[in-house]
Amino acid sequence: MDGADNRPHVHLFWLRILRSQKKKVIPSIFLRGAEMSEHVVKTTCKSCHGGCRVLVKVKSGKIVHIEGDPSSLTRGTMCPKGLASIKEVYNPSRLKYPLKRVGERGEGEWKRISWKEALDTIAEKMKEYIEEYGPSSILIGQGTGRGYNRYTFRFARSIGSPNVLLPAHFCYAPRLAAFGITVGGRLYCDYHGWGGEYPKTIVHWGKQLEYTNADGEMAVWFLRALEEAEHFILVDPKATPVAHRADLWLPVRPGTDAALALGMLNVIISEELYDKDFVEQWTHGFDRLRERVEEYSPDKVSRITWVPEDKIKLAAEWFATSRPGCIQIGQALEAGNNSIQTLRAIICLMAVTGNIERPGGMVNWVPPETGEMEEFALEVPPPEELPIGADRYKLLALPPFAMCHFESVCEDLLNGERRIKMMHLQGTNPVLAYANSKDVLKALLNVEFISVVDLYMSPTAKYADIVLPAAHWLETDDIYDMHPRFFVSAIVRAVEPVGEALPDNVIFNELGKRLAPKYWFSDVYEMLNYQLRKAGITWEEFKEIGVLARTGKEHYYKYKTNYWREGGGFPTPTGKIELYSTILENLNYDPLPHYREPNESPYSTPELSEKYPLILSTGGRVPYYFHSQYRQNPWLRELQPDPVALIHPETAEKYGIKDGDWIWIETPRGRIRQRARLFEAMNPRYVFAQASWYYPEKPDLGIFESNANVLTSNKPPFDPCIGSTTFRAMLCRIYRCDGGE
Ligand SMILES: Nc1nc2c(c(=O)[nH]1)N[C@H]1C(S)=C(S)[C@@H](COP(=O)(O)OP(=O)(O)OC[C@H]3O[C@@H](n4cnc5c(=O)[nH]c(N)nc54)[C@H](O)[C@@H]3O)O[C@H]1N2
Ligand SMILES: Nc1nc2c(c(=O)[nH]1)N[C@H]1C(S)=C(S)[C@@H](COP(=O)(O)OP(=O)(O)OC[C@H]3O[C@@H](n4cnc5c(=O)[nH]c(N)nc54)[C@H](O)[C@@H]3O)O[C@H]1N2
Ligand code: SF4
Ligand SMILES: [Mo]
């Protein structure tokens, strides 16, 4: 793949050198050129949220080829990011040694230090701050799930800090919370057919699974199920890559999904299309929901969402009558001012149609023999204090995973007591990932000490005091446990790390040993064995087995058994699916789903809309990048060198923009440049900008040049229950960078 396959003479060259040095023993691997030293490692790709099983060919200690494992759950499929992993492992700009800042913050002057000095310094700093200000003064952060969440949480708990930072209040935590309070656990689309049925109706709602393989489902499973489906409904303001396969497309106005779901519920309930037996026996608060949805007639909802009334009705009818059906909920629904109620409305749709826990519907998977891997974090007692912001956004404090609210942390760092004294950021890039990047950077500069663990000198690492080199997944031994939940899979080190890089789990364990030895392990293998104990196997055995998966009928209808409750029921306070949420009621939030207009829109801010006439959504994913990652990967960057914004041809014409022109996209917070791509399959009033862009090749990294979070707001109102910021529905204007109007 990178050419090395065809160069066995390299090894003959070494053989000659060895002979000329009159070595007595020549290792057998050199005797017959390359073939002797070649082997294949079976492992799990983690270049995105991960999960594809892959075969890695290693020759003389170097990776030469990667391909999908056809015998695996992901059927041998891989995406460009996974395939380009060789160029990540051997990327010349990777961090190789621990570094200590010697110049001013952000100046880029570093000194190489030993791991011992680096880890001792970080641990000493933590001890000092804990002593002076208490453990809450330390923030432990990671980015999106990169497979080590349980170590992050265990570490934070073991040092007593409640302030765990994840970009979760606008990604995944709203889903966990909304499913949690409504049905007692996360539901997944059943694309697998283990119960003898595939979904008849599949809905993709703010989701591009075909690109993102996100949140517990892989594209390959969905595409297989799509072949069996009678109806595929797309709910998205623009056509997605699978739009040509859709039978119905609801081009919803960004940020109005709750109204749409409530409108569909209105149709289903008023036309009596709901599953009466299921509703009667297994749901709580149906009558109050019925009353609530009366406020959302299809014609009113059509005016709010800009989706034609007949399409709303048809979608509701198909979903209710062509069963089983499932709804794939995307992150677009979480990054808004009403994320919890939006998701709750959609979950109510699943419930009243009886599509929960049945084959081909929405199922809460049973974990494999290892048990739930997050137990590894939860077994450490939780901190006593609440995380910053969780007093206001109360669902952030919900067990199992309480976390801080980053916008509140930044507000406190900029204008408050500066309660966070130290941040340890492992695999995250707040300077690009969170709303209002310029404020975020200012806030970070007010933190006394920052340590960062990354593969590269990222825009955030640049401002740290100590930077540690993380090993790539191809250099790591660990247990893969991202969202699929019905399986765990072995991540097996294929090659030694470059330079002195160390795997994340090793770094957590080494820091943990220094600060809270009672909760940490003599080495990483003892830690892996411990996590596998319930399955009765060791790491060495698991490495050979590769995957532990549950793929049978035991997943379905668990509420009819004693699985959650003696005598049956769901793991909620009432034992039923809570259409009317008693948990929200107790927290003084609206117990029933409702609609809320986006903070900025032609209706909520008509004056602003005159100056900023277009509706902007940021962050739809692309197949070649994972957030800010891979801009320095030559294979991937070649496929898409520049940031791209989608605009409609009519809009382009109006503003004198041609396909490929650099344009400014401006909101009241600032402006960024991206290249215009003309795209017809959307409303001319919408603009879609990509997120997470920076330019590793530029000396200043171009942090604010094309980064969509220059445009987003970090000011309230957020989602009242969980604090989500808005990424997908704001107002903007656009114009050509070269001065055209
Ligand atoms: N290749 C790649 N894969 C990834 C990632 C990546 O960066 N690159 N990131 C990972 C992460 S952390 C996440 S959270 C997931 C996200 O993955 P998904 O949840 O699949 O989200 P997106 O790809 O952003 O797709 C969102 C879709 O929502 C639409 N949309 C925008 N605004 C709205 C709206 O208001 N309502 C509705 N109904 N739709 C809207 C967009 O047009 C887009 O088609 O992907 C994960 N996978
Ligand atoms: N405007 C806008 N902003 C968004 C979004 C949006 O849609 N629109 N999406 C949001 C979402 S859903 C999310 S989840 C966040 C993502 O936010 P983050 O996860 O913080 O994303 P990145 O900017 O990619 O930062 C990750 C860093 O971790 C490093 N890294 C990668 N793998 C590893 C590893 O294995 N170990 C270590 N130690 N480091 C590693 C990378 O090099 C990179 O520097 O962004 C959010 N930001
Ligand atoms: S989808 Fe994710 S896990 Fe699969 S090959 Fe691509 S990057 Fe790897
Ligand atoms: Mo995410």
TrEMBL record:
Family: Belongs to the prokaryotic molybdopterin-containing oxidoreductase family.
Protein name from the UniProt record: Molybdopterin oxidoreductase, molybdopterin binding subunit
Residues in 4Fe-4S Mo/W bis-MGD-type domain copies: 38-93
Listed Pfam families: Molybdop_Fe4S4, Molybdopterin, Molydop_binding
UniProt source species: Archaeoglobus fulgidus (strain ATCC 49558 / DSM 4304 / JCM 9628 / NBRC 100126 / VC-16)
Keywords, sorted A to Z: Iron, Iron-sulfur, Metal-binding
Cross-referenced InterPro entries: Acetylene_hydratase, Asp_de-COase-like_dom_sf, MopB_CT_Acetylene-hydratase, MoPterin_dinucl-bd_dom, Mopterin_OxRdtase, Mopterin_OxRdtase_4Fe-4S_dom, Prok_Mopterin_Oxidored
PANTHER family per record: OXIDOREDUCTASE YYAE-RELATED, TRIMETHYLAMINE-N-OXIDE REDUCTASE
A molecular-function term among this protein's GO annotations: acetylene hydratase activity
